[in-house]
């Protein structure tokens, strides 16, 4: 038996080497060996002649010895499966790498370009550079579109009360006068008719001695004359500084009752100008006045040209 096991020692070493180099082929070889052992046992039992039995005794012993080695072969097969998994995963144990280094292979074909790499980290901040020269002023840009109206702001605080101003009174100028009852006047051509009875003359601009109005406030004035005509026809002129402004005439035809003649005009005056009523013809002097009828001369300021009028009393 010891001789038989030693005779199988080289076979076992060869089988182990084959497992390392040709794992797939060794599996097939192990299966074939088992099949051979089984076939040998069958042949031995089927032969009837003694000589043949003697011939196959040695084969039987060999087969039995091989059967005793089946557990070892089974372990080798399990080890081969484990090693084949490692070989497929390119995980060769260092203990199996006992051969000489192979010849270097030829250079491989250039691979395709790889994917772009990630962005690198930001570099360190550089030292501040020196301030450059001021550039030229650019051209003005185009005017933008007008923006929307903003919301109304809050009301501001009330300001301080201002100082009291000077009290300004609108300039005044007005008068009205009439002839006295039954007054007989020398009414020659060119003479001013003196309306001697004052009705209103607060500013004193009308003079009863001369029958003339003298302007003190520049502006526009309105003058009106109302005459009662009786016993004779009447014609008179409204004068300004010796010039006729307007003329009025009323014919009298021996009527039992008096007639009337009225007229008026707007005049622009400056300080110093004078206005009065003057007879136009000596024979047409029919001014008349009584307790029941009057002849009047009236004038007043319509508006002044002074922007900063003084106070008049």
From TrEMBL:
Q: Which domain of life is it from?
A: Eukaryota
Any idea where this protein resides? Answer: Secreted, Extracellular space, Extracellular matrix
Provide a GO CC annotation, any one. Answer: collagen trimer
Which residue ranges have biased composition labelled Basic and acidic residues? 118-140, 149-163
Domain C1q spans what residues?
168-308
Q: Enumerate the InterPro entries for this protein.
A: C1q_dom, Collagen, Collagen/C1q_domain, Tumour_necrosis_fac-like_dom
Q: Which Pfam families match?
A: C1q (PF00386), Collagen (PF01391)
The protein depicted here goes by the name C1q and TNF related 5
Alphabetically sorted, this entry's keywords are: Collagen, Extracellular matrix, Secreted, Signal
Identify the stretch(es) annotated as Disordered.
Answer: 92-165
């Amino acid at each position: 038996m010891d001789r038989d096991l030693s005779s199988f020692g080289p076979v076992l070493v060869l089988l182990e080497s084959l497992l390392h180099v040709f794992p797939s082929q060794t599996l097939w070889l192990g299966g074939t060996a088992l099949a051979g052992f089984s076939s040998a046992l069958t042949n031995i039992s089927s032969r009837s002649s003694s000589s043949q039995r003697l011939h196959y005794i040695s084969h039987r012993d060999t087969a039995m010895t091989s059967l005793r080695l089946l557990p070892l072969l089974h372990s080798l097969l399990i080890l081969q499966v484990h090693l084949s998994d490692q070989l497929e995963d390119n995980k060769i144990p260092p203990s199996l790498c006992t051969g000489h280094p192979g010849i270097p292979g030829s250079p491989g074909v250039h691979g395709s370009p790889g994917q772009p790499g990630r962005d690198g980290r930001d570099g360190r901040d550089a030292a501040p550079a020196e301030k450059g020269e001021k550039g030229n002023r650019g051209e003005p840009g185009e005017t933008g579109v007008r923006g929307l109206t903003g919301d109304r702001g809050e009301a501001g605080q009330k300001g301080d009360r201002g100082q009291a101003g000077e009290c300004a009174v609108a300039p005044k100028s007005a008068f009205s006068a009439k002839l006295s009852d039954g007054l007989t006047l020398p009414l020659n051509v060119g003479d001013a008719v003196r309306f001697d009875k004052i009705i209103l003359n607060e500013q004193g601009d009308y003079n009863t001695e001369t029958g003339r109005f003298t302007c003190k406030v520049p502006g526009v004035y309105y003058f009106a004359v109302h005459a009662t005509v009786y016993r004779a026809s009447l014609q008179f002129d409204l004068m300004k500084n010796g010039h006729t402004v307007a003329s009025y005439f009323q014919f009298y035809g021996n009527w039992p009752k008096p007639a009337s003649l009225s007229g008026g005009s707007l005049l622009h005056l400056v300080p110093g100008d004078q206005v009065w009523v003057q007879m136009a013809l000596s024979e047409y002097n029919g001014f008349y006045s009584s307790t029941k009828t009057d002849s009047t001369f009236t004038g007043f300021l319509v508006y002044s040209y002074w922007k900063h009028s003084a106070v008049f009393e």
